[in-house]
Structure of Flavin oxidoreductase:
Amino acid sequence: MSKHFSLSELQTWDRFTRANFINSLSGFKSLSLIGTVNGNGVSNLAVFSNIVHLGADPALIGFINRPLAAAPHTLQNIQETGIYTVNLVTESMYKQAHQTSAKYPDGVSEFEMTGLTEEYREGCIAPFVAESPVQYMLKFEQLMPIELNNTFLVIGSLQEAYVPAGMQEEDGFLDLAKAGILTSLGTSGYYKTDKIDNLPYAKTT
């Protein structure tokens, strides 16, 4: 039997309990680290669990940035340089990835504070995470403010991708489980994944 929760009941809970409930309700999400750098060359690294595919042609990927007062550095760096990296998270690095969500002051690199390794590739000013087996580079394209809660949809176009050999299947599908990529639930839950199936394109007949 299901237990019913009304909005009015949720609003009586303390804000942390309510946030954990609602953040978990939307289900499992991607788990990634976004790498950026500011104009002074100071790197920044932040964990995100709301990165979404927006389209394949053109190849667009978006993420939700929290209000600037709570999380200013990633968005400021992206707007300043126009380039950023996305690095998927594995079991060997999830605790360090989680720690990047701490509110370090401006001018302090999360790479240094967490022990993750900056990796620079030709043609990309922003750092990749060397420990991540799946990495890609995005070019900033559009910022869409969401007035309801003062957040922002940040849209980037895919420029480069780096994936382990043997992970791509014949139809182009990337079996991320082969690389040990984790998923997240809420703001603090981390889970392993196992592939169940890869179904063919659905048709009416």
